[in-house]
Design brief:
Length: 211
């Protein structure tokens, strides 16, 4: 009788434990459902460019991303350097494994850029379009936060790309009978052309927040 009661007790415990295990598995599978993320590229912020993106992830495997970057006009620095950017980015991704958060994808970008570097005395301004393969790694910081390291390689097309340089013009003047020189610095257009080149289409260290 004691053996019978012991066996019944084991069966009862197993019956109670089975739904618990099933619910745990169900919860695990539901954790792979759709998820939404906000993201921002820290490298863009380091260049004084605001950046914000949105990611929709399906079953922890497939994702669609939209993001934008912009500067408030064109930054002009004391050394003459200029920097301006407006960019839109769209990307589709495939995450290989939840335990090994590597991914590959295809990205598209378009926007406008304007920059000048005093050293080589050359500047660029115009519209651009880019498409390329992307890849990266997700480093989880917590349940809701992660870092996304990514890079993209492909082709970029620059439409009506203007190349300019900074010119210093000195004009003799006379003030109160005292001769002098009036100095004016301005940007002179060198040429305008369109071209397509292989290039790095994107690079980022993104801070990601799961909503």
């Amino acid at each position: 009788m004691k053996k019978f009661c012991f066996i019944v007790s084991l069966i009862a415990i197993a019956a109670v434990a089975r739904p618990t295990q099933s619910s745990a598995q169900q919860h695990k599978s539901s954790s792979g459902d759709n998820a939404f993320f906000l993201r921002t590229n820290l490298i863009q912020w380091a260049t004084l460019t605001a950046d914000l993106g949105f990611e929709y992830r399906y079953k922890d495997k497939y994702a669609f991303l939209l993001s934008g970057s912009t500067t408030p006009g064109t930054w002009v620095f004391k050394n003459g350097m200029r920097w301006g950017l407006q960019k839109f980015n769209a990307e589709v991704r495939y995450y290989m494994d939840e335990n090994e958060p590597l991914y590959v994808g295809l990205g598209y970008q378009q926007g406008q850029a304007n920059f000048y570097v005093p050293g080589p005395n050359v500047g660029r301004q115009g519209d651009f379009y880019a498409i390329g393969m992307t890849g990266g790694y997700i480093l989880k910081l917590s349940k809701s936060w992660a870092l996304d390291f990514n890079i993209g390689l492909g082709y970029a097309y620059f439409d009506y790309y203007q190349r300019y340089q900074r010119v210093t013009l000195e004009t003799p003047t006379t003030t109160g009978g005292v001769p002098g020189v009036r100095t004016v610095k301005y940007f002179q257009l060198v040429d305008t052309k369109s071209k397509a080149v292989p290039t790095i289409t994107q690079i980022g260290v993104n801070l990601v927040w799961k909503l």
